[in-house]
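Kindly inspect what follows.
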Amino acid sequence: MEYIIPTFNWHKSGGENQITHVRSGGGLRVYLKRPWFSSGEGELLGVVLAPQGTAENLPELPVTYSQWGADPVFPFPGDTGFHLESGHFKWHSKVDRGIVYPGINDSKADVVAFAPQFDAERKLWYADLSIDPLTRYFPFVKLMLARYQEHSLRISNTDVCLSPVVESDFIQLVPERKVKLSVERRGNIATQINVEISGKRYAGFDNSFEIKIMSSNIPQPISGVISASEPRRDSINEETLITNITFPDNNSFVATGNFRITSGLRKVPFDVVVLEYEKPDKIGRRKLVFADEFNVNKEEK
């Protein structure tokens, strides 16, 4: 293993007056040291997991199998389990169960395997993983990785399918965020925009959302803040109506804001920028954790 970076996908849908953007999180790209295919054709990157049905009885230390990690500042709501399971992974090429764990006597493992691809620019092999964070907000994962060869010799309940296992550092997964923007019009003139942001949250969720309307036709952005801890906070501009953040269940949030569009913007293109900040630290600093942009009244080329 060379290094791992987080990845995510954007899914955009809708039309002129109803637009939805979804940032799907849980992605990781694992870059691999060369050479690859040392065991022959068909060699895959294997994520080593606890054997099915045994995770609840395994100790937390020493770390032998891939596992979740949590930020103590942002605890998960409820009990979510400790070890990663094969059902948490998407896009995998192969699942193999009950194979020999190399280097540990009488130990078995399950493996979720991914086909590597070659990055010609970086001159490295890599594999894209997708992990479902379920109800977790920005969870960490520690991956136990190995070369996996499905066609290795298997005799009398033994095999050599896995290379020696390598332990990764903890790396954080990006949570999913969904933003819906609707434009209310009278005739062909935009009069109001409505913004709804939803996603997973941590226990005691206290993030805030800033919505900005930006255009070259106005000297300063029109802004407003949606915050659960300050539900009566005034918007930065009188054109903004702020509503509270609601929690439809123990793991999710929905934040909404409505903006009456000034007369100078009703017929011209403008951008709506959505920003999410985590709760401030002890000295008041806020960390930006999500950003998105929508184009309204976009001119046809």
In short: Confidence is low (pLDDT under 50) at residues 231-239. The two ends are 46 Å apart (CA to CA).
